[in-house]
Design goal:
Layout lengths: L3 E10 L2 E6 L4 E6 L1 H5 L9 E6 L7 E6 L5 E2 L4 E2 L3 E6 L8 H13 L3 E6 L6 H11 L5 E3 L8 H11 L2 E5 L6 H8 L25 E6 L2 E5 L47 H8 L4 H16 L4
Parallel strand pairs: 3-5, 8-9, 8-11, 9-10, 11-13
Antiparallel strand pairs: 1-2, 1-4, 2-3, 4-5, 6-7, 12-13
Length: 299
């Protein structure tokens, strides 16, 4: 074995990182002190160099981290190209504002968002309504892990269009169950929905990347329920427009220059909402997020 290897972090727990090295060898590594001094935290998805410890240092250490193409804080993953945002029509009830915030955070991070409507079999009409809302701006998949519906199509899309992808969404929407249906060999732990609270128990405890092809990885991420724009650095509210792909064809078509698309007369976006070309819920989310970006004292 050479003293220095390259590979990718596929999991990190408590300061110990699992690195899949080029060639297939798996090593447990710690981060060099220089990374801690620079306040650089290794993430699942990072390409790294690994070196055997010197002198009294036992084991292997992450020596350096390659430049990252993308980063998300929630889920904490580096170098992903696609995030599949999962929501379901019921059990638990979907939060459209929460989903829209996550989609905007993904877009703002220069990552491709794709929408998955899971558990479509438990409320077919509500699932179709969600499809109609999000298919105007995103690639959307209707799935049922229980019945196997949409699983094959989604699996082909992942294999053909992604290198590293992550699944995100509120607790209890069925991310781990969906991953098990897509890739049975993953054998991810899944949990039941609490009948009393209708909130998912957090059964996925850390971010883990699973190889499913030649340099292709899929990430399973911790369950979470608070979805907001803290996932990315602040950007001006005027740029929020470009995080709503169904808005973009109306760019420059408003009556007044500098239109905020909130409530102005002659706004092309508002006209599209009134005509049904843009879903009302999406514009409502836009207005809420615009005001939050404008007034949030954190910035």
């Amino acid at each position: 074995m050479t003293d220095k290897l390259s590979g990718r972090i596929i999991c990190g727990v408590g300061g110990l990182y699992t690195v899949l090295c080029d060639g297939g060898k798996i090593l447990k590594c710690k981060a060099r002190g220089v990374l801690r001094i620079k306040k650089i935290t290794p993430l699942a998805g990072d390409r790294v160099t690994v070196r055997r410890g010197d002198g009294d240092e036992m084991g292997f250490f992450i020596d350096s981290i390659f430049p990252r193409k993308t980063v998300l804080d929630r889920p904490p993953v580096a170098n992903i190209d696609t995030v599949f945002t999962v929501l379901c029509p019921a059990e638990p009830e979907p939060s459209l504002l929460g989903t829209d915030k996550l989609l905007c955070a993904i877009s703002a991070a220069k990552i491709t968002p794709v929408v998955i409507i899971s558990k479509a079999d438990i409320a077919p009409e509500k699932a179709k309504a969600l499809f109609d809302i999000y298919s105007k701006g995103y690639k959307v998949f209707l799935t049922s892990s229980e019945l196997g519906e949409g699983i094959g199509e989604l699996r082909r899309f992942i294999s053909e269009n992604t290198t590293i992808c992550a699944f995100a969404g509120a607790s209890g929407v069925g991310k781990s169950t969906l991953l098990n249906a897509l890739f049975p060999d993953l054998s991810l732990k899944t949990g039941k929905i609490s009948e009393k609270s209708q909130r998912g128990k957090h059964t996925t405890r850390e971010v883990t990347l699973f190889p499913f092809g030649d340099d292709k990885f899929i990430a399973d991420t911790p369950g979470f329920s608070r979805l907001d724009l803290d996932a990315v650095e602040y950007f001006p509210p005027e740029e929020l427009f470009f995080c709503f792909p169904e808005f973009e064809k109306y760019f420059g078509k408003c009556k007044y220059k500098g239109c905020t698309h909130l409530r102005e007369e002659g706004c092309a976006v508002i006209s599209a909402v009134e005509c049904g070309d843009i879903p009302l819920s999406r514009h409502e989310s836009y207005v809420t997020m615009y005001e939050e970006l404008k007034n949030n004292p954190r910035w």
